[in-house]
Design a protein that fits this description.
- The chain has helices at residues 8-12, 49-55, 59-63, 65-71, 139-155, 200-208, 212-226, 235-259, 310-329, 332-358, 367-378, 385-392, 403-407, 419-436, 443-450, 461-472, 477-485; strands at residues 5-6, 31-33, 43-47, 83-85, 88-91, 94-98, 104-112, 115-122, 137-138, 161-174, 183-194, 261-262, 284-285.
- With 520 residues, it is α+β, with helices and mostly antiparallel strands.
- The protein folds into four domains: 5-200, no CATH class; 210-355, no CATH class; 376-440, no CATH class; 461-507, no CATH class.
- Strands 1, 3, 7, 8, 9, 10 and 11 form a seven-stranded antiparallel β-sheet that branches.
- The protein is globular, with a radius of gyration of 24 Å.
């Protein structure tokens, strides 16, 4: 393997001086050295050749035993020092103290084609930050993370990536529903890829401990390697750093809302400073358009991380990040201004996103009302978000199409579309048709534009569950099928039309298809 290995993180930041891999509070250090746990019978299930090429792996590398052993923890590449990061975080709104990489181990950094990437294993064994956990991962959660990382990238959503998915050959004990019923499941490891896995919590932990020296060291490192265009470290560049993190976070969440993605666990330790979607746990895509939906069983009562609240949580998390940076800036006003800009920025970008989904490209002062009324009607009866917006592009502005006919396949209970609900839909389509007459582009051009922002295929939970069920039986063909399907989510793919469908009724309440737990 001819990789261009880098060691910036471990050579430029303070390390935990204790080498023993024991659970502990790690002070004045950004990471701890730790080696992955050896696996008994590793087997590679799938590799993303797209990301492998970006890292500099050849096809020969991907077929080699060396690649398998490195990506399953059995071999530590020569002259590399795997490590786990120290960070804290706010979980469900409460400060949780030290958290850290409890089941993620960073192997090394690779530079290729003027880009640098960190290669990380998730599920490769315990670290000083594992608390009561074993640091391992199971096949079902690993399949979900692997498929979703790559699916999100092809949707145009900023995200960490995934290189490989492998079985460990070892069984892992898990209580899937947290109901006291433990069972053994197949162990697995995903190799995750990102320019950096730094999160808000990496900075929060040092601010919370009053360790401003290490905080400054980490922020200066971050500027040097990930925000070098902001110049040398200073109070001004720290402010600009916060502003850019704000903008990236805002853009990421706008993309989530655009495709109907719900993260499920927007704790501050799951918020990337690069504005990347990170840590795929109990995520899900909206089936029925529902502002109140969350895929997380842990959040089922309070619904803190529900679909409609994701923009607010992004802001709340940025407040915590601002508090962490404040000791280096010592001036609240510029930080408060940036946070205010998030609010106005979200309103504007959300509006622009929704008008693009509706194919409205001319300026009209009544568009906001048209959008708000649509969002209200969408919730009167269970209406599939993905199918609705995709099929809406077939509506003709010359009034030759009937709106309800165009979108009828999106309704889960078509019999409910009568009386007042039917009238509200007809009234809305009358206004929509009148508004489209103001658009200069043709129906065909508008359809093409709408189809670049409204995906036809997303990774619905039931689809992932079908792949998981097959994989449990040793059949991995569905993983490959979905992986390739989701590489072109905006294309028609007539041969894959079966996946452009509402969630089947059998999946409505099935474990893994509706809601999931925080951890596995």
């Amino acid at each position: 393997m001819n990789l261009n290995i880098k060691h910036n993180f471990t050579t430029e930041l303070p390390a935990d001086p204790i080498q023993k891999n024991s659970r502990r509070q790690v002070k004045e250090a950004c990471f701890s050295y730790v080696k992955p746990k050896k696996t008994s019978k590793p087997k590679l299930i799938h590799v993303s050749k797209d990301i492998a090429e970006q890292l500099g792996f050849s096809d020969v590398d991907l077929q080699s035993e060396a690649f398998l052993n490195i990506m399953t923890g059995n071999t530590v590449l020569e002259n590399t020092t795997p490590y786990a990061m120290c960070y804290g975080g706010h979980q469900f709104g409460n400060w949780a103290g030290q958290l850290g990489d409890g089941r993620a181990i960073n192997l090394f950094d690779v530079e290729h084609q003027n880009k640098q990437w960190t290669i990380q294993l998730k599920g490769a064994g315990e670290t000083p930050y594992s608390r009561q956990g074993d640091g391992l991962a199971v096949l079902r959660s690993s399949i979900r993370e692997y498929l979703c990382s790559e699916a999100m990238h092809h949707l145009g959503v900023p995200t960490t990536r995934a290189l490989s998915l492998a079985l460990t050959g070892d069984n892992v004990l898990r209580d899937m529903l947290y109901d006291g019923n433990q069972a053994y499941e197949k162990g697995a490891i995903v190799s995750r890829i990102s320019p950096s896995f730094l999160r808000f919590g990496n900075y929060e932990i040092f601010a919370a401990r009053g360790d401003h020296k290490t905080l400054k060291t980490l922020v200066d490192y971050t500027l040097k390697h990930h925000f070098s265009h902001l110049g040398t470290p200073s109070k001004e560049s720290y402010i600009q750093f916060f502003n850019e993190v704000m903008q990236r976070t805002l853009d990421m969440i706008i993309h989530w809302q655009r495709v109907g993605f719900v993260h499920g666990v927007m704790n501050t330790d799951n918020m990337s400073i690069l504005g990347l979607t990170i840590d795929y746990g109990p995520y899900g895509w909206l089936e029925g358009f529902d502002f109140g939906w969350t895929p997380n069983t842990t959040d089922a009562q309070n619904k803190r991380y529900r679909f409609a609240n994701q923009p607010n949580i992004g802001l709340w998390n940025l407040y915590q990040f601002a508090n962490a940076l404040y000791p280096l800036i010592e001036d609240a006003k510029p930080l408060e201004t940036i946070l205010e800009n998030y609010k106005t920025g979200f309103e504007q970008k959300s509006f622009e996103m929704m008008t693009s989904k509706l194919g409205l490209f001319e300026v009209d002062d009544k568009d906001l009302k048209l959008i708000q009324d649509l969002e209200d009607i969408l919730q009167l009866s269970e209406t599939d978000m993905t199918i609705f917006f995709r099929n809406l592009s077939n509506f003709k502005k010359d009034n030759s199409t009937i709106g309800l006919e165009v979108i009828k396949d999106a309704f889960y209970k078509p019999d409910e579309i009568n009386g007042d609900i039917k009238q509200q839909w007809q009234d809305w389509f009358d206004r929509y048709q009148f508004r489209l007459e103001k658009e200069s582009m043709s129906d065909y051009d508008r359809k093409m534009k709408m189809n670049t922002v409204n995906p036809k295929y997303v990774l619905r939970n039931y689809m992932a569950q079908l792949a998981i069920d097959d994989a449990d039986k040793g059949d991995y063909t569905r993983i490959d099928e979905l992986f390739n399907l989701l590489k072109q989510p905006y294309s028609e793919q007539p041969e894959n039309e079966k996946w452009f469908a509402k969630r089947p009724e059998w999946a409505r309440h099935k474990v893994g298809c509706s809601m999931l737990s925080c951890s596995s």
